[in-house]
Structure prediction request, 439 residues.
Amino acid sequence: MIEYRNVRVALLGAGSVGSQVARLLLEHGDELASRAGAGLELVGIAVRDTDAPRDVDLPKELFTTDAASLILGADIVVELIGGIEPARTLVLQALQSGADVVTGNKALLATHGPELFAAAEQVGAQLYYEAAVAGAIPIIRPLHDSLAGDRIERIMGIVNGTTNFILDLMDREGATFEDALATATELGYAEADPTADVEGYDAAQKAAILASLAFHTSVPLAAVHREGITSVTIEQVRAARKAGYVVKILATAERLTDAQGVEGVSARVYPALVPESHPLASVHGAKNAVFVEAEAAGDLMFYGAGAGGVETASAVLGDLVSAARRHVIGGPGIAESTQSALPVFPIGSVSTRYQITLHVADAPGVLSTVAGVLADHGVSVETVEQTAATDPGDGTAGTANLVIGTHLARESALADTVRALRGEDVVVEVASVLRVVGA
Prediction:
């Protein structure tokens, strides 16, 4: 039997992911040691309450409330607390002590990533974060290593299982947003307060991480344009399906060139119309998927479980094995690359297509007026569909629906067009505005 040196592992947090990491470490220690070339010794688990009930039965002697002392005796620290503090303070303490850190904390990385990577580089430590985006799906390592020699042009990801579950239920079963959210909550996909998911905050954090990694540029969370799904209606979803689209909320990171020829990046999150033929359209339920467009490799799709305790633990353990291998081999960690330092463009610099649904007055010249507004803002019409007018039955004029598909245009011009349409007397309501993927 091969004798391995031990690498001391400290675990911070024993929630749904942390408890599964601990269980798998204890159950499969010998197998993991053979892969890492070192024994992975779980020396302790730091928690707020050592007596709190947990999903997994773990040895009581491993638990402690003294995270700081636990960190000082570890070679590798696994942070699965979540949130900003005390996670930031503890991760910095671990890195400054020379320990490698494995984390799944998207909020921490999106907000304080540059600070943490700088701290790691200063002492030659390594920060691993595969579990921070898309759960069990391997996407961080492919971008960091496998595609390091390629040029990424665009990433589009379904990176939040809760919102994908809701939109999928609306599409496939005709549920309203409210009913779909209630079902997601009942099944445990949505938190009691679903704001972080349905308003796009969770996806925006992941978009910032993906954009920073893919384009070797620090992309702050504040620079990510964010829109949620609370305004998506069942009528929009049905109209999308009728037109050959599926509504998905996408985290998009894209390389752009502005009007002055300056290259930069864009990161954004919003609901969009995805053609039925696109691989992302077939991502159902609470699954996640990340679609990468690279110059040399072409189109790549990464698909799988985006959340779940044991699923996410798989990504954490993969990073843990890599960290242990690094300790066996020796040498400093590899610094995070942000040397491109590309500017981050606002949403107005993006070129896209819109599908605009208008409730308009049933009167002569309406279509001409609407077309004139678009032309005034340099936006050309690709398709127009008009439904039959409704008669209110009280002698007043009825209304009709206009669904306008635009050609490719700058987001700023399209947004100005929508604002102008809202100010037209013939426009009763701008009922829906959705962007179209594939522009």
